Amino acid sequence: MRQLSGFIAGTCLGICIAIILWLSKFLSKVAEPFLVVLNSLPKVALGPIIIIWVGAGTQSIIVMALAISLIVTILEILNGFTHTDKEKIKMAKTFKANKFQILTKIVIPANIPTFINSLKINIGLSLVGVISGEFLVSKAGLRLFNCIWWSGIPA
Prior knowledge:
By secondary structure, the protein is mainly alpha-helical. Helix content is about 80%, strand content about 0%.
């Protein structure tokens, strides 16, 4: 459940932010260096800050899954948006299409494969985020692994 929540939140929020950044060239140019720096930051290092911010519970696990998948989604979707065929966009502009029409009629349909690739990447990243969050907020450790290891059953 936590993985699914982080996956859905990371994907939806990432796509929405990428759309906003595509619509505003100024905002995109300002935010892109920060997104690249945040992408290189190890998200597990944010764990203690996340625990202080939302508490040591299920919410912090979901926020960790969201943090790991969000930046990758934004960068990937925005990259797909900016590499959409410029000739099609130019043609739509000659027919007096506005930004919203270009987005809904040209850019989003051209980036369906990018959305699917983003979903494939995000499901794995949200699992990594949930596992990292579980390690950060756990109080007892992995008891199942310890029981299997001490009983002599091959894992």
